[in-house]
Amino acid sequence: MSASLRWCSQPTRGLHGALRIPGDKSISHRAIMLAALAEGVSSIDGFLEGEDTRATARAFSRMGVQIEAPSSARRVVHGVGLHGLKAADGPIDCGNAGTGMRLLTGLLAGQAFDSRLVGDASLSRRPMHRVIEPLARMGARISAADGGLPPLHIRGGCSLHGARHEPAVASAQVKSAILLAGLYAQGTTEVYEVQPTRDYTERMLEAFGWPIEFGSGWARLEDGHRLQATDVSVPADFSSAAFFLVAASIVPGSQLLLHAVGMNPRRTGLLGVLRLMGADIREENHRTQGGEPVADLRVRSAALHGVDVPESLVADMIDEFPVLFVAAAAADGTTRISGAPELRVKESDRLAMMARGLAALGVHIEEHADGAVIQGGRIAAGQVESAGDHRIAMAFCVAGLVAEGPVAIDDCSNVATSFPGFVDLANGCGFAIR
């Protein structure tokens, strides 16, 4: 697929239908990893067929794990046990997957063999020092390019030891890398966070039978246990659902039903913010799926207004900020966002790219070091650049639905990393993307 792929999103009159969003990317990554290290055969249903998650599956295949794909969105993993991985025959390509690379770094730090992790141009600009530093405190030996950037070389045969960690930045990826290294470390591994982050790794370790204690903002595990194969049912990805939640909220006359969306409380901060803005989103049919809370979400169009986004919700919606910027641009009044410097080190500098793109569409926006101030009410037609960032590309598709004319979005090929089939699903409920 060409890196110069351009989409054009046009105004529409209403979104309708019942949708099944693809599986959660974060859970799909973790399910492959723990199933590979478990003893026995695990089945994963709802696996996200995205480029990022497929890259993680390929990594474990290259390390000797048999992974079958009997049908779309399903994987059968023949686990090799905690110490059964083998050295890959060359560098492991993580593609665009920051989650994959950071979690693999923790997991591979405890192996007997050397590993080298590489990524695409975007991933190669993302900092890894925040993972390298705590792992080094546990005894890992990891080298990186200048500035702590990929590629990473992870030395095998290191004797890891448990430690107490208090990361300066709230990051589920950092916490997860530490916990995965803790499976191979002697003693107790503990993580205490400045703000609670999503607990997917903790929940999944528990599902695979590893004793772990965790609560809001902390986790603790001991060495000396084994992972046992289990079947995982992956819920729909909340971050992917977010584009439809905002779209149906801002396009007049819309009503959508999104089935079986993951409702992990450390992931759904956007719901709280949209409701503060006046959104009409109802949760129905609450249940548990694969150890995770899920619900059907029914969203109807509503008149949104600007708000001051509570900093307490920032860590719980870090991936949803691009589409929140669009909601703010479509709302009446001023929205203020602060406490989100993490947006600068995602697949792109999302603060800079969203500010630049919205300004190109006539939106008055002030970019700050850790956020922005957005004056909503009008989105003009125009052309924007996604910088190869899948979430920015999809966010501007939503903006085009309520713009005064077409919005052209350049460099959209990376949407396949997290949401394959986005255009077909979106156009099927009333988007106008070509």
Description:
It is a single chain. This protein is an alpha+beta fold and 434 residues long. The chain has two domains: 6-23 and 236-428, Enolpyruvate transferase domain (UDP-n-acetylglucosamine1-carboxyvinyl-transferase, Chain); 25-233, Enolpyruvate transferase domain (UDP-n-acetylglucosamine1-carboxyvinyl-transferase, Chain). 29% of the residues lie in helices and 25% in strands. It has twelve helices and 22 strands. It has helices spanning 25-37, 51-62, 98-108, 129-137, 172-182, 200-207, 238-250, 269-276, 321-330, 350-360, 390-401, 422-428; strands spanning 6-9, 16-19, 39-45, 66-68, 74-80, 92-93, 115-118, 142-145, 149-154, 164-165, 188-192, 212-215, 218-222, 232-233, 255-262, 280-289, 292-300, 334-337, 364-368, 371-375, 382-385, 407-410. The protein has a four-stranded mixed beta sheet with strand order 2-15-17-16. Helix 1 runs parallel beside helix 3. The model has no long low-confidence stretch (mean pLDDT 95).
* CATH architectural category of the largest domain: Alpha-beta prism
- Shape call: globular
Domain tally? 2
* Total DSSP helices: 12
Q: Which secondary-structure class do the elements indicate?
A: alpha+beta
- Per the CATH scheme, the topology name of the largest domain is UDP-n-acetylglucosamine1-carboxyvinyl-transferase, Chain
Overall number of strands: 22
Mean pLDDT: 95
Name of the CATH first level of the largest domain: Alpha Beta
The portion of residues forming beta strands comes to 15-25%
Helix content: 25-40%
Which segments are poorly predicted (pLDDT under 50) over 5 or more consecutive residues? Answer: none
Query: Mind describing the biggest β-sheet?
Result: 4 strands, mixed
